[in-house]
Amino acid sequence: MSKFISLLFVLTTATVLLTSFKTNINQNTGIEIPQNIDAIFAKSCTGCHSVDSKNYKAKMKLKLDELGSMKTSKLVSKLSKIAKEIEKGDMPTKKFRANYPEKVPTDEENKMLIDWARSTASQLAGE
Length: 127
Prior knowledge:
- By secondary structure, this protein is an all-alpha fold.
- It is built from six helices and no strands.
- It has helices at 2-20, 35-44, 56-61, 72-88, 94-99, 107-125.
- Helix 4 packs antiparallel against helix 6.
């Protein structure tokens, strides 16, 4: 019984540690989201595009916190779409820009996001 309780304690502790440890490494592809990109996502994107978001429509289109669980082909597609939406000026939305001007990415941040998304998608696609 003592071994069972010890094992249960170890497994519970490991589960708590693993679920609370935030990683920015994509588990399926091995890509790493650079800290500067992750910071932009945190400031400007994850409020709508995360599993915890109350914005159902945005959450269903893209959950940035699930990039790590996407298969390579889906990730390439999502990264390409991210670059395209930012470049077209569709993200963030006009409503977001009006309501949260302090969270709108700068032109430089948008360029970093576009460049990172495109180069990562190309790398994953083997181009």
